[in-house]
Amino acid sequence: MTHVRPRHPYLDHPAPLAFAHRGGAADGLENTLTAFRRAADAGYRYFETDVHTTVDGKLVAFHDSTLDRVTDASGRIAELPWSRVREARVAGKEPLPLFEELLEEFPEARWNVDVKAEAAVHPLLGLIARTGAWDRVCVGSFSESRVARAQRLAGPRLATSYGMRGVVGLRLRSLSIPAALRAGAVAAQVPETQAGIRVVDRRFVRAAHERGLQVHVWTVNEPQRMEALLDLGVDGIMTDRIDILRTVLDQRGAWA
Question: pLDDT (tens digit, 9 = 90+) per residue, 63-112?
C-alpha cells in the first residue's frame, strides 16, 4: 500500500500511524498520565489529546469544557483556576495533567492536539515555541477558522489538520465538485461516517493523497473496521482500544 510522503517532520514516521486516542480511553482514564504511560509502554508514539485553558491561563489536557462527565468535580474549566482544576480526579482517582507536563513526560512522543476553545490557541502556540516542539505537535479542531488562525500565527513550522469545513471541501473535491481548500494543512482527520453518511472511501483517500494530505480516521475501535480502512489506504487510525489496533497492525506486518 502506497502512503503519502510526509510534508512535515511531524509525520516523518512509517505509515500507517497508530494514535492512542486520549491515551487509550477504553477504561475510562482518558487524558491522564496513566493512560498515556500505558500507551507508551505498548509501543505507541502518536498520542491524541485535547486542550482547554483555565481562567488563569493554564493549558489543561482534557476533552470536555466542563469537569462533570468524567471527574469527581464540576464546573467549566474556563471559569476555574488551575488550583481548583488540579484537585479534580478522572474516575475518582487520576488527576488532570497540564499539556506541558505531557510534553515533558514523553519527550519522544508526537501529539495530535484538538484545540477545544479559542482561548487555548495562544497558550498552545506559546508552549510549542517555548519548548521547541514544532515537529512534535499537529493542531486540529472542528473549527476550521481556529486552526487557520493558529497556522497564520505560527507559519509553516506548525503542522495542522483540516477542520470541519476543510473536510467537507475535500469530500466535495473527491466527488468532482469544486470547493475551496485551505493551503498548508498536512492531514485530513475525519470520522469514518458522519450522521450516517460515509466520509472515508477510496475516492476520499485518493483525493487527499493527490493533494499530499494524509488521512487519519477517528475513533475506530473494532478490528473489522480497522482492517477495512487500512485496505483503503488510510495513513493513520485513532483508537480507544490500543490493544486491538496494535494486534491488527502486528498481524498485517504494519506495526512500525
Answer: 999 999 999 999 999 999 999 999 999 999 999 999 999 999 999 999 99
Q: What span, in angstroms and rounded, lies between the C-alpha atoms of 148 and 154? A: 10
Catalytic annotation on 209? no
Helix segments in 132-252, DSSP class H: 144-154, 164-174, 202-210, 223-232, 242-251
Distance CA 237, CA 218 (A): 6
State the pTM of this model: 0.96
Catalytic residue among 8, 21, 52, 216: 21
Read off the amino acid at residue 175: L
Cell numbers placing 48: 491524541
The pLDDT tens digits for 5-55 are 778 999 999 999 999 999 999 999 999 999 999 999 999 999 999 999 999
Q: What cell does 70 get?
A: 468524567
Is the CB of residue 31 less than 8 Å from the CB of residue 96? yes
Nearest partner of 186 among 206, 229, 156, 141, judged by Cα: 156
Q: Domain segments of the chain: what residues? A: 9-251
Fold of 9-251: TIM Barrel (3.20.20)
Q: Which of 8, 52, 63, 216 is flagged as catalytic? A: 63
Question: Nearest CA to 60 among 91, 37, 25, 90?
Answer: 90
Query: Catalytic residue at 21?
Result: yes
**Does residue 1 have a pLDDT over 70?**
no
